[in-house]
Amino acid sequence: MEIRRIVPSGYCKGVINAINIVKKAREEHAGENIYILGMIVHNSHVTDELSKMGIITLDDPLKSKDELLDEIDEGVVIFTAHGIADSIKEKAIAKGLTVIDATCSDVLKTKELVKDHLDKGYDVIYFGKKKHPEAESILSLSPLIHFITSKEDIEQLDIDNDRIIVTNQTTMSYLELEEMFGLLKEKYPHCIIEKEICNATSARQKAVTDIKDGDVLYVVGDVKSNNTSKLATIGRNSFQNVYLISSKDDINKKDLTGQDKIYVTAGASTPPKLIDEVLNYLNELAAESLE
Ligand code: SF4
C-alpha cells in the first residue's frame, strides 16, 4: 500500500493570516475578553485551540451575527476570515468594542467587485452556499443580489437589464462553477462572468483532479468547511472511494482492505498537525500490511 499526500493541501494564506490575527490580539489585549463572531475558520480543532487561550467563539446556527453581537458588551470582537456585513461592523464600533477584522483579502476582493457593479447599475448574480458566512457577507451588500445555489435557481431568474454580472463564493467547486456559469451564459449571453474561486481553493481542487491512479482519497477537514467538502465532491469524479475525515480517528481500517494507492488531501482550514497524524497512521497501517 502506498500513501501519498497531494500537494498543495492544507492551510491557505487567508487561514494562516486569520489565526495569526487572533493570536496577536490575545497578546495585545491580555486581560480583556476576546470574542470571535462565528468560527474564525471552519475547523473545530482550531476553535478548541483558541478556546484554550481564553478566546471565546460565539457560534450558533440558530442565531444571526446581529444576535450574537448583542451578547457582547465589552472587550474585543474579531470578525472571521469569511467576511462580515458592514452594518455589523458599524454596530460593533458603535457599541464601543475594539473591532478586529480577519476577513481574507480574496473575500474582500469579491466584495469590492460586487459593490462596484451594484453602484454601476448592474444586476449581480452570485453563486454560493446557503447560510455560509461568506455568502451572507456578500448578500448583505444589497437585497437586490440574485443569490443562486443550484441549476433550479437559474430557471427562476427573470432579469431585464443590459448589465448583468455573474460571480461566486471563493470556495466553490470549479467543476460546478463551469456548469452553472455555462447555463447562465446561455440564458443571458450578454452577462459578464467573473470567476472568483480563490487561488488556494482552485489549486487544491485541481491537484485532486490531476490524480489518475488513486484507489482511496482521504480528505481531512471539518464538514462545516465549504472548501473541504468541495474537495471531497471533486475527488468522487476520479476516486472510487472518498472519505471526508476530521482526524485519524475517523479512519476505518476495513476501508483499506485490498486498496493500493492511498492519497491524502486537506481543506484550507485543516491544521497541519491533523494531516501529519493521518499520514503517520496510514504509513503505520501500510507497514503493518507488509509484515
Ligand atoms: S480558502 Fe481562499 S478565500 Fe478562504 S481564507 Fe483561504 S485564501 Fe481566503
Your description of this structure?
This protein is α/β, with parallel strands linked by helices. The protein folds into 3 domains: 2-11 and 200-290, Cobalt-precorrin-4 Transmethylase, domain 1, CATH 3.40.1010.20; 13-104, Rossmann fold (3-Layer(aba) Sandwich), CATH 3.40.50; 106-197, Cobalt-precorrin-4 Transmethylase, domain 1 (3-Layer(aba) Sandwich). The chain is 42% helix and 18% strand. It has 11 helices and 12 strands. The protein has helices at residues 13-28, 44-52, 65-69, 86-94, 105-119, 133-139, 151-156, 174-187, 199-209, 226-235, 272-290; strands at 2-5, 34-37, 55-58, 76-79, 98-101, 123-127, 146-148, 164-168, 192-193, 216-220, 241-245, 261-266. It has a 4-stranded parallel sheet, sandwiched between helices. Strands 3-2-4-5 form a 4-stranded parallel sheet, sandwiched between helices. The chain has a 4-stranded parallel sheet with strand order 7-6-8-9, sandwiched between helices. The structure holds iron/sulfur cluster (SF4). Iron/sulfur cluster (SF4) binds next to helix 1, helix 5 and helix 9.
